Amino acid sequence: MTARRSKSERAKSERTITAPRGALALRRGGSGAGAAVAADFYSDKVTPATREEMFPVVMGAVLLGFMALIVCFSRGYVLLYGDAVAHLGIARRILDSRNPGLVQLGGVWLPLPHLLMLPFVQKLEWWQNGLAGAWPSLASYVLGVAGFYRLCRRMLVPRWALVATAFYGLNPNLLYLATTAMTEPIFLALLIWITLLTVECVDAIRAAEQARAARRMIWLGVLIFAAVFTRYDGWVLGAAAWCVVAWHLWRADGMWKRVGTAFAVFTLLAIAGPVLWLGYNQHFYHDPLDFLRGLYSAPAIEKRTSPPGSKHYRGWHNVGWALLFYTRTAQVVAAAWETGFAAMAAAVAGLWIALRRGTARASLLLWVPLAFYVYSVAYGSVPIFIPQLWPHSYYNSRYGMEMLPALALFACVAIAAWERRVTKARVASGDADSTSAGAGIPVRPFYLAALAVAVANPLAMIYGTELVQRCAALIERHPSNLLANYEPPLVLKEALVNSSTRVPFERNLALVLEDLPPGEPILMQESDHIGALQDAGIALRQTINEGDYESLHAALQAPAEHAAYVVSFEGDAVWKAVEEHPEGLQELTILCGTGQPCARVYQSEHYGAAGSTTGR
């Protein structure tokens, strides 16, 4: 009896340590779905997420997204990025143009984000205030958070999946981008869901579940097609996902024949995107690689924006510097102050643990942006500048956001593994888990500390500088040089700095354009300052711009004959045309601003006169 009683007590003790959720549900008298959710949360088993788990995650993402929109919209942050204004302009001109249609998509930026904005941007007010771009980004944010938690549950227990999702979803840089017309929120959602479906597809192949594997392949192909038309990172991501699925399918005996049709559709969808985009460039711009070597390609932009005689940026044809710049940027956009080093170190450790265990190796797709951007910085004329590294300026810092899912997930993989190791050591030594007030809920220091960090991190990124400076003032000390180096969230800071001259310049130009007679045609190159037309609420079909090559080319030969008003920016094609053909143009206004090219507004004395070659 003594031996039997000791064995029973020992089993009871082990159940309390490894599965306290059952005791929790019974002691509280819980039952049904609520008890099941509580039990799952304190489980030590890695299982796919349930609907009960997903619901609060989705609702939390919706709440956070709309809170971010209210804050950013009320403070005028939505249109700070010039690229956001340009994305809205491209979406608007698909229908609002002298030559409407797909040709207005342009040949460099990929079209899916613009097509998603298309239903919203036709409302003039939403185009002007930027809300037209916010709706697709907010939806992508919510979908991204939901997919990220579901992906985390393939590798982590519920409590650690919650920590990882909180670290990801609460990031203030991500929340800011989710209120703009930038493409990062859309691509992050696609990156997460492509990784998730690849993991699920591989699991289905291993389990010889034909129907589930076929469904995952079809959906995966659709998402790869979408990613290819969102960012060029998606081309590499899609190829990597296809290789992962094809490898596991080749290794699975007999699965080729059973899912051959689905795999063929998956393959066609994966290659259709690049082929269509190359064909689009060939048809409209007579060069299938116009996006790589055309007038608005990255190398051309880098050449135009670099001062004459200047050296290339650090990282040019140097993989080491490129790796340093990109990883440092990823750290700064992910974590407050210098804690990004710890996040990166933990993520690398989690990556090593995942590789050793061989669990959900397809989740390594989250690291694809690292290779893509290191190559892009080194060999693709894509510089990244952050204040922490020379030349201490702001440019393309948002690219670091694409490492956020990998940092959040794999850092938690490492910390969760450490927690399990410490717990096993305590159990082996005979120590029992401490409990809170006898309620049966285990106090897990690693989890509580990590959750606190995940919640405190965005607060520190938003308010850290102000709090530190106030504390320094309270003790009657001036902030040290170290304190002076603290910055607000990097992506928002870049938008504020780089828009400080463009926004007032375009606003002043918009005031001039508002005074022009409505409906009169305006000759203007819109690439760099379409925000002035947006601010003034002028329909794009009223302008002669680079969106219609034939009309623009004819107008440049005789500006006064083709437009009632001409707006030129120093150095652009219209400026040169006015210098060569100034006949019949009367200068009305000159606008100059710091860091911006001077703009000149002319009125035509010939437009509409008898014998004019054009009509209204």
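(ticket continues) Second input and output from the same batch:
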Amino acid sequence: MKYMKATSISRKLLTRVLSFYFVLTFIVTCAQIAAEYYNTKENIHSELLTMEKTFSGSLTRAVWELNTQQAIEIANGLVAIPMIKGIKVTDENNQIIAQVGEEANTKSFNISSTTDLADGYFNLNSFSKGIFGHSFPLIYEFSGRTTRVGTVTLLSSNEVIFDRIEIGIYFLLGNAIVKTAALVFLFSLAFSKLLTDPLNELTEQINNFDIDDPEASKLHSIGSDKNELNILQNAYNNLIDELVEHKEQLAQAQNDNVLAKYKLDEQNIILEQEVARKTSSLSRTMLKMEKQQRELLEQQSKLQKENSRRSQTESTLTRTNKKLKNSIHELNKAQKRLLESEKMAALGCLSAEVSHEINTPIGISITSTSYLSDTLTKLTRDIQDQKLTKRSLEDFTQNASHSIELLNNNLNRASDLITSYKQIAVDQTSDKFRLIKVAKYIEEIIKSLHPKLKNTRYNIHVNCPENLEIHGHAGAISQIFTNLIINSLIHGFEDMIEGDITIDITMLEERLHIHYQDNGHGVEPEQLARLFEPFYTTKAAQGGTGLGTHIIYNLVTDTLNGTITANSESGNGLHYDIEFDSMC
């Protein structure tokens, strides 16, 4: 008897077990190396943070004093540290002051915040270049105010990490190789003794099987252990016992088969007679079925035509629906762009008016400075010519004091106006949350609108507790009050010499309640019903867009998740009631 060459099951099992162990060992070793890598990288990042605390003060002073040479010397000193591969120092306008070593281009890095991004701290990582680092702002405190004067970027590289963990990697690899070699030897020895040798003995006994004498072909004991091979031996011996029994049963079955064949012949004759009778009945049934089949085919043809017509209709409806969805999507995008354009246009108009307003105090300051310079020149000339008198000195002192007073008043006025406008402008272009002192913030908004209110007799009265604070969208609140006040000035007080605006703000059950009213013309009932609709305006001929109140409605309901209602009677002004959570 010929047998196909078989692959050793013990070898195959050993190969699979060891392969799984090799893969597992490789994965664990890689994970340990990765852990060493990231742990070392975190340590280097901590050292970078320490260097930030150590050198940020001297770099801030150097950048503030425009001492470029000192900044370059500090940068060269930092790059001399083996851990630092590069440094870049920029000013507040992102102009490079000093750059040594590797170049830091933040566009090629992944940036992950380490603190609030509003504070300017972030990490730099570039896996493709093998470079990572830490960037932090330079903050200078002057007269109680903090100013960002520049940014410092410290760079390191994977080369530094690998230098630190090199010995650890060699130890991990050596440990994995030794354990793997020992495991291969032990597994090979165990598989050979427990599986390969018993299987070979079992195979040899099975090959000596005698079909004529199954009892003599039973397997003898192939091991003293009670394992799967003993179970296989017992199962094989039981199979031989069953084979002997089945041989006896087969002889009896042959005798029974002869008797059954005789009875089967008798039944065949009876069956042929029954088949002839059934065939006649079946023929009649087939004729009826053919007629029904023709009717079904006709119905199927009609249904196919109807299905085709409906498929065409469905396809047409699907294309039309897709076009409608695309149109709605484009309209929504256009509406969002138009709302943003309206916000920026209002901010641009406010910027132009504030710039014009600043020109007056600055012009007065320039005039006072020029006058003070001429007076000082005259005093210097009198001193040189020895014509200085007590009267001229008193005149100079009085005039200089007056000029300095004018300078202080007008420069403070310009500074306050710029500060108010800057805070409002930043808030209106930002979606960030911050703590807001409501009374002070409303005052800042009104200051930023001073160019529109000066030389008018329009008054704004604010009733708000001084200690009222909320945490929310400052930009949204600024935009709401700006639009409300401008709408009152343009629409409510049209053709009116005097006007009053009253703003009442209270806090009730963690919700901020705002009641805004003016004593202007008010609106008609049909106009009030459409007040918050987009593009609805009574000033279309004068360039009105009709988006002011719509923007207010969106900011209150969407951004602040609040409610807003309006009511008015013609001639009795317009009233708004706004309510939203203090943690909006």
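Agent notes: The first strand starts at residue 86 and ends at 91. Residues 1-5, 106-122, 540-544 have pLDDT under 50 and may be disordered. Closing as not reproducible unless the customer responds.
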